[in-house]
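DM from R.C. (forwarded with permission)

"hey, sorry to bug you on a friday — could you get me a structure for this? deadline for the figure draft is monday and I only need the backbone to look sensible"
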Amino acid sequence: MACVCSPSLHFTGPFPSSQKTTKTSRLNPHCSQSLSTVRNEFPTMEEIVSSCKQQNLQMRLQTLGPFFRVTATNIATGNEVGRAEGVIRLWVDGTILHLDSIRLKKETLGMKRSIFGLGLFVGAVAIRHGYDHGCRKAELLAVNDSDVFHSKLVRFYSRIGFKSVYDVTGSSMGDVTHMLVWGGRGTRMDADIEELMIKWGAKFKNST
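My reply, with the result:
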């Protein structure tokens, strides 16, 4: 997933419901809480959107078949300040949320967080959308356009729950497929969506 700081869409329907999906759990089977109790602690789409509004952000989601786009707008100015795009796709090990890009703009939002914090809010809407459509895993590419920015991206995604799985350097034949899919070099990172929902739950639930 490219995270880009660069120089609107309208949501075409109600946000996806927060209903549970029937997918195989990857949570710790020894957890003392039941899976239903744990999933009840996942932030709903409504809670995520409400939390975004407290940060002066209006979140909008548009879908076309498996493709989706999340747009963040500054409520005060009406200007677009962030966008995430991707696709929900079927794979051999289940349904995957493929995050193609997140593009962010440096505009004052009155937020408590940095521009990377804006990425978390935009990403949370995409992750919840994937969960509501049966995705078990999210995947992205932390693009390596510069060593300094790349290292910040990897640290940011690691903090929010993604794990590095492969460095796409372009130096081997094995990198060709990755570069065709992602369009560049960087670090391939994956995350278990249910683990992300647990990790982010308190943040979005406590702010509503």
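R.C.: lifesaver. The chain has one domain: 2-6+37-205.
me: no worries. The CA atoms of residues 56 and 75 lie 5 Å apart.
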